[in-house]
């Protein structure tokens, strides 16, 4: 077979380049510790490596999400702890204000601290996270949740949304709670109003309607009561009946049916946990109805502020004492409702944090499994690689020496000789 000089040179050069490529590839593998650096290195293993890397990256993102959710929940838990401490102090002040030995000036002093607590609570409910977003605004993270109204009271500007963060392929954890359910929708005690029938012809007027026993009134609620007056000569009496079935309502101590009770202007009429006074001269057949108010909700800021306003304005006297007693009782019940809602949310936060810890641990185990599998597929066997590098280097050196000898061979060398 005839081999040209050019062919011999190209063949030798190709062998040298292949040898150098093998040595270079082995050196790169040893330097990186990876047997497969590009899909061309092992087309069969490449898809598995890509899939495993994608899973590891996804788990890393889940772990980052879990850490973000934990930080948000820890911050919320800290804020709620501050709110609880503040409300507990408000409750202590409310109980103190109910001490009959206090004078008006002392109660006004309590009102001063209550207003300071309102400002403290306002700071808590409008707290921001590390990202400078409001944590209790729901989805309206850039909207201040609670705003003071010009006419008094506060309004909630956020919504009821919750931020859910994925921490695994199948689980999203709530990383926030709406300020509406936490601070704005606090149930306040049931109450009532007294209305005079349009056909009344006497001069009777209602004074100081108050709830004196909330539990008793709650048992009667939502029924209403009708007070009907009868006048026979110089004698005026009244009877109290249920609106629902017309039966007599009991009252007084000891309790007895309030039927044909002698009327004394300004004397308390008490039944089913409520009390009112009627003064003047009701006419025969005049009717007054104690009508229940619909269930209402209020924000914690207004609850505390209303208590402060009441203590600051209700002076001395029997009527003021009754109204103040109802004010303090309502405030205590509302504060307990608020703290119950906060405690329930705090418990939920604890459960979410436990879930995050559990899922995070599972993610780490799965990631470790994927990394071990990835190592088996793409990592380099150093012993084998070094042995191959030694062999490839030897082959390359032999090819270089052979090439040096071949490229000096020429027919002219013999002719010259």
How helical, in percent, are the residues? 40-55%
Low-confidence runs: none
Q: How would you sum up the global shape?
A: elongated
Class by alpha and beta content: alpha+beta
SSE layout:
Blueprint: H1 5-32, H2 46-97, H3 104-125, E1 146-148, E2 154-156, E3 164-166, E4 172-174, H4 179-184, E5 186-187, E6 192-196, E7 205-211, H5 214-220, E8 225-232, E9 235-242, E10 250-251, E11 256-257, E12 261-262, E13 268-271, E14 274-279, E15 287-292, E16 297-298, H6 300-313, H7 318-378, H8 382-406, H9 411-416
Antiparallel strand pairs: 1-2, 3-4, 5-16, 6-15, 7-14, 8-9, 8-15, 9-12, 10-11, 13-14
Question: How would you explain this protein's 3D organization?
Answer:
This protein has 417 residues and is an alpha+beta fold. Among the domains are: 179 residues, f41 fragment of flagellin, N-terminal domain (Up-down Bundle), CATH 1.20.1330.10; 103 residues, no CATH class. The protein has a 5-stranded antiparallel β-sheet, with no helix packed on it. Strands 7-14-13 form a 3-stranded antiparallel β-sheet. Strand 13 and strand 14 form a beta hairpin. The longest helix is centred in the C-terminal third of the chain and has 61 residues. It is elongated.
Give a brief outline of the structure.
With 417 residues, the protein is of the alpha+beta class. 53% of the residues lie in helices and 16% in strands.
Fill in the keyword field for this structure.
417 residues, alpha+beta, f41 fragment of flagellin, N-terminal domain, five-stranded antiparallel β-sheet, 9 helices, 16% strand
